[in-house]
Structures are given as structure tokens and as C-alpha cells.
UniProtKB/TrEMBL annotation:
It holds the Pfam family Plug. Residues 264-289 are annotated as: Disordered. A motif (TonB C-terminal box) lies at residues 751-768. Residues 284-734 form the TonB-dependent receptor-like beta-barrel domain. It comes from Zhongshania arctica. Residues 1-24 form the signal peptide. It is a multi-pass membrane protein. It comes from the Bacteria. Keywords: Cell outer membrane, Ion transport, Iron, Iron transport, Membrane, Receptor, Signal, TonB box, Transmembrane, Transmembrane beta strand, Transport. InterPro entries: Beta-barrel_TonB, Beta-barrel_TonB_sf, Plug_dom, TonB-dep_rcpt-like, TonB_rcpt_CS. Residues 270-289 have a biased composition (Polar residues). This is TonB-dependent receptor. It is found in: Cell outer membrane. Residues 52-161 form the TonB-dependent receptor plug domain.
Amino acid sequence: MINITTDKKRLAMLIAISSVSALGHNLAWSQQGAAVVLEEVLVTAQKREQNLQEVPVSITSFNAAELENKGITSITELEKSVPNTQFRASRATNSTLTAYIRGVGQQDPLWGFEPGVGVYVDDVYYARPQAAVMDVFDVERIEVLRGPQGTLYGKNTVGGAIKYITRKMTGEAEAKITVAAGAYGQQDLNIAGQFPVIENELYIGGAIARMERDGYGKVDTGYNINNATFNSSEENYNKDVLVARISAEYSPGDRLFIRLAADSTDDDSNQPCGSQSSPTALTNPSNGQPFVISNNPFDGACGTSHVSNVENSGFSLTVQYDLSETTTLKYIFAKREGETQQFIDFDGTPLDAFDVPAKYADDQKSHELQLNYTIDRLAVVAGLYYFTGNSAGAFDVVLNGLGGTPYMDGEHFDLAIGGDVDTESTSAYVNASYELLDNLTLTGGLRLTKDDKNSNIQRFSYNTTNSFPYTQNQGTGFTFGDPSNDTLLAVATDISDREASNDWSELSPSVKLDWQMNDDIMLYISYAEGFKSGGFDMRGNAATNPNVAQGYDPEIVETIEAGIKSQLLNDRLRLNFTIFDMNYTDMQLTVQTAQPAPVFFSSDVVNAGTAEIQGAELEALLQVTSGVSTSLSIGHMNAELTKVLSGGVDVSDSWEMLNAPDWTGQVGVNYERDLGDAGSLMLNTAASYRDSSRNFNNVVCSCDQDQSYTLLDASANWYSADEHWTVSLFVKNIEDKEYKTGGYNLGSGELAFYGPPRTWTASLAYAF
């Protein structure tokens, strides 16, 4: 039973704002005679091109023009427009994605965990969240699908999917150069182009983007500690990213299409240093004085090196062949690999009391063979998917001296944790839609998945004598240190991949029934199951939990959804409404237990939770006149943990769902005017609302965003009459609101990370 707890003040505020401003969502309009109508939106959510209003799926789609007009430069900004979603850069990172849809996701980006929300680029699944905070450029469309996905996709995803679709070739020789400058020293350059090698057959295209920006704050430390002076001044929340793509498309006839694509991302931005959201208990060991908290939330006092790097690259081959007018065969091969190095400061002070130097590496290969068959009343998508991947990593937990006092002389007690996970996933899926009547369609899907994983896990304790803050040789030989400086103290976990080996099989069904009540209104109801694969806890402490080698099992989400999609007022109003009820079982939760010094705590990943999530989503777009459109997006969730077992005791009364704000919404207005020979002008405003949310299931933290907030954005775009020139101005977070996007709550203190302050960007583009 759907139970929507209405907060009248918040809902009234959203509706009031919508009367004066709204988001220009799917902004294009067209004239049919004297009538002003909305433009049709085409999506490929069901692996074939369909009108958005005819797809019985909760989906929000953004085309290239809309993304450009609104100045959306990262997929994390989509959370403002899509109800019941939260897309963030993971705490202490710039390009690692933490994505939640309807309260389902994965908070911890540690290797070995499966993401709850799948990211696909041109139908290629990204297995790791590193480098998944993608910059938006050279894109044709982005689709966000809510709810379990699996009977139509190569890799099963339990919460939903983000589909990033790059721009296809037009067959013409063309190019576009965009330069941008803005607040905090922003300097961006984007060059994209394509040309035919063989007319009407072979095309080559590519794009490259360089994005640089100073930090929103500084990491400044200048302390005399134990008769040594440590000084550091670094940018905090800066950006230094280089992204490139290249592709070739070959179409020797009407039936065969071949596409080869490659991409590379190199992110040299400093990892963000969190700021103390509450005073730390740590003091300067030289004088006993506390470390002063800056008034600027973007400032920090981390004592680690700020040298960070994320590299990710890959290529894919897509071959599509039309066997007949009714049958198409498609094959996709992809290979990707990535490397990350970073230094995380969990204490947020110049002390090296809780520093974590870390490095990760991953690679993946996938094959997908897909069959599309459409005839009369029947449409079938069937496929085979095979995935292999290795995800590895190591990190040191540089804690303190053996006596429990933070040292700055290079000698430390250190926890060294490392290992890797090999994954082999094989699946088969089928999805069939059959028109029972001219206006009634039944869709059924089934997916069989078998995952095999093995892992080696190591957790050692060392005393290391040459680990210094502000340097790149912190830690032990596990990461960036020198093994000759390490003295082994204890072995808590040393598990080989022969010991930690397991496999899981799952059959996931889905069924949908949609009724085209008339030309303007479609009703649907659906049921779907999704699962997130099991795995092994890479931090597992076998000394306290002898079951580490057995791993944890998959988690399951069962979703019932009912919705209405409508096109009213002579195609001037698009109104879509959905309600859903989710049963979330065997949740993979991290349960922490206290340990004696110098370790202080340990954590175990177990299938300990059950949750119930109910909610509703409303998306509306009104074309008021040929030049004015308004829209409204509202999401509501009531997400509750109903059972959490810790030590055999249900502690759900003290636990809450994380990253699941009760209310989200956005409203705005778009204005477009034809200036004749002077070109055209487009103005956008948007107000985005987000309720409070938690960062941890089991503890309240000062790093939580414990209050609701609204962000105001605006943009202006001028297009020349010859369509060559574009001049744009974007202003985001106009009121300079302060809001938290993540945090840590550990024994060393509480740290918060913040969303961007008020920024502006001016850009100039020339297309030829």
C-alpha cells in the first residue's frame, strides 16, 4: 500500500515556485498550423527507438540541446532534474560516482563492491565508479531509468541506470570549437569534429576537452609540531581534467553498421580535503592547542600529499546487421581499464593521525550478442552477455604511534589492506512485448545471471619508520612506502583466491501491462525484480570474523510500479505520474564494531538489512506559447529500514536509510525568442529543492545535510542566424547556498564535503 506522507509546507513551496519559474525540460517546440505543440521525445530505454510517452518505464531524457542550454557539464548535475535521485562525487574524490535512485545505490566505492546504479556509455557497462563522474560533451542524449533493469541490459542493475549516448556521425564534414571562462579561474576548451573518409560509407570523428579550474578553497597548514615546521598550500576542490574520444563508423550498405570507438580520461585534480564539521578532539602535540576550524567550508587542513590521479580508458566495437526487415543482430565488444592513486586524510588536521594513501586498478572485458525481432503485434529483444573483470587495490591506514599519540617523525602503527577480486558474469535475457489488443500491450521479461567471483584479501599490521605527511611515500610497501622500513606486527587476514571463492545464480523476472486509453493517455502497471551481486569484504578482519572467506550474498529489490503518461491540451502539456512500492531484502550493510587501540574499530559487510520504500514521481512540461515553456518535477520517498541485524539483535530503530531525501524537486521557466537576422535568444531559470539526508545508516553526523535547501540557477544563450556562433552565460547556485554532499564520522572527528558555491561561466562556440 503506497503511503505518501505529505509535507504540506514543502509541497506548497514547490507548487508556488512553479507558478513563477520552472525548468525548461525538453525545450524544443514546433508549429503545426496555428497550434503550439511539444516536440516528440525519442528514447531507447527498451533497446528500440520509441516515443517517451509510449514506454511503460520511469525515465527522464535529456537531449544535447537541452544539456547545452542549461549548462549541464557533469552527470552529477542531473540529480537536480530527475526525481528521487542523488548523483554525487564520492567523498574525498573528484570523479568517483556515488549514485542512488529511489534510495538504492552503493555508498562505498571500494573495489569488490557492485554499484547499485549502472552507468552505460553507448551500451557499454562501466563496472567501477572511478571516473564515472563523466563530463558532458559530444553527447546526443542522456537517459535516466528508475527501478531495476536487467531484462533489457547486458549487466543487471538493482536501482536503475544512467545511459550516456554519444553523438553519432551526420555524414558531413563539420567541427565545433567551444572556449569557456568563469569563476575561480575556470578555463575550458572543447574541440569536436568529424569528416567522411569515403562518402556515404566511412566516417571518422573525435572530441577532446580540457577543463581547468582553481579550487573553491585552500588547504593551508603552517604548524610547528614536535620541533618541526610543516607548511603546505594547495588548491581544494580544483579541477584539472583531460578527456578525449575518437570513433569511426562504417556503413557499406543499408544493412550493415560498424562502429569502433575509443576514449581516455586523465584527471589530475587534487582530491578534496574535507573540513571539520565539528571540532576535532585532536590537538597539536607540541602545545596541546586545538586546531582552528576555518570559517570557509571549502578550506581544509589535511596533512597528506595532494598528488592525485585517476586514469580511465577503453575501446568498444559495435556491429549491427539487419538480417531482414524484421530481424536485427547486434554485437558489442568492450575493453576498459583504469588506475587511481590518492591520499585521503580522515582526521582533517596537519597530523598524520589517520591518513590513508591508496591505489586502485581495474580492467574489464565484455561481449554482448543481441537479437531484435519485430513483426505485427510482437517485439522481442533477446541477448547473451559475458563479462570478465579484475578489480584490485591497496591502502594503508596510517594511524599513530604504538603508544596512541600522533607522531610527525615518520614512525607509525599502520594497517595495510589489499587484494583483488576476479569476476566472471554470464547471463541470458529476453524481453517480449505483445499487443493483446490494439490498445493493450503485455510485456514480459526474464533474466538468468550466474556470477563467479574469487578474491585474495590481506590485512596486516605494521610498524613503519619512514612515513611522513605531505609526501608521496606515506604508508608501507603495500602502497607508496618502502618495504625495508616495515616491521610486521600481526596478520589478521591472509586469504587466497582459492579460499575466497563463491558463485551466485539469480532468475529475475519483469512484467508490464500498458493500456493506451486514447491517443493522449497511457496507463501502465509493472513488477520487476533486480539484484546486486554478492562479493567479498576487502576490509574483512578474519581475526574477529572467521566467515570473511565466505563472502556476502546478493541483495534483492522487488518493485511494483503504476503510472500514467499523458499528452494533454492539444499536445501542449506533458504530464507523467508514477507511484512505486519496493521491497529491499538482504541489504549489504557495513556493520562496525569497537576494537581496542590502536585499531579502534573494525567493519564487516553482511546481509543484515531489510527496507521498504514507497514513493511517487511527477514530471510535467507545459508549452505556454511558442517561446515560453514551464515544467515541474517532484519526487517523494518514504524509505524505512524495517530490520537490521547486528550481533543477532534487530537494531533497525536506530538505523536510517542513507542518501534518500524525502522530497526532491525542480521548477523553472524557459523563454525563447527569434531575433530575425540578429539570431535567437534563449533564457532559462531553475529552482531545485532537496530535503535533508543522512550519510550513514547507523549514526547521526554533523557532516549530514540535516536541512533542506533550494538552489537557483540561470542561463542565457544567443545563437547567430547562420547557426555558426553561440554565446552563453551560466550562473549556478545564485544565492551561494552552503550544502553538504558527503562526509566521514570516525574516531578522529567528523569531516564534511560541500557542493559548489556560486559560480559563473561564459562561453563562446563556433561551428563550421
